[in-house]
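Read as chain and fold; for instance:
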Amino acid sequence: MLDILIKDILPIFVIMALGYMAGKRGVFSSSNAQIFNKLVLTYALPAALFVSIVKADRSMLFDDGKLLVISLVVLVGLFLFSYFSTYKIFKHSKSEAAVSALITGSPTIGFLGFAVLGPIYGNTASTGLVIAIVSIVVNAISIPIGMALLNAGKNDGSKDAGGGKRSNPVLDALKAPVCWAPILAVILVLLGIKFPPILEPNFELIAKANSGVAVFAAGLTLSGMKFQLDKEVLYNTCFKLLLMPAVLLVIGLIFKMEPMKLQMMVLAGALPPAFSGIIIGSRYQQYVRTGTSTLAFSIFMFVLTAPLWIWITRMVA
């Protein structure tokens, strides 16, 4: 666990700190953060999502029906619960609630999945299966839902420039590469169409910029505002690091999942918030301060909660 913290968690703090200092020293401005986020959201993140999903095999998706159904129902259910709780309890707009759900209701499985689960459970077929299924649920289902809710919130009560009907939020969401790229990848996997490995480097080169630029931009964004640690940040952190893995564990125990896969699924759900939510929020200037503060505090608290969930799941699974 110490090796994971040093190799995978510490670099997040370091890169975020670099972005924060760059903003404070005036090397980059908040407008530069918008450019970085646009680069990631339009090119790097869609490429990263596409490449990570097309590597999956169709048989993997149906190899464990319990894992697939529980991951789908729990993660999407908690995603929607996060949306409604932010909208109803904390009185945010629908657009802000959508970004909150993209952050609080989604684990950063693409960035930390193999980095955390691999050293603990081994880079086995079961590990790949858990990460693939959780990644597909988060990236191909939750992100399009979140984008549709975000667009619906932006269009709420407004008309287009010509005074006509409001645009369709679902169609608007599907126009974004961050939505259609993972969906296209899932379709290819379901159809059994193997993406040529020789073409993967064409996507991986830009995909490698995803996490580093996103974390740097988050630190840069945070430099332009005061870090806040209030009841909403605490709620978001507890929701992501405690409630989500707890629900996954209880449901998995009820339906008697295979112990090792249950442990991996719970730890996947206990990962910090997804960077994609921060990128989307910064790009559309929605829920930026609270979302970025939630990410920073959650990453810090993950150092404490990760060993806790590893111990709990090994005791009860």
Remarks:
- The chain has one domain: 2-25+44-316.
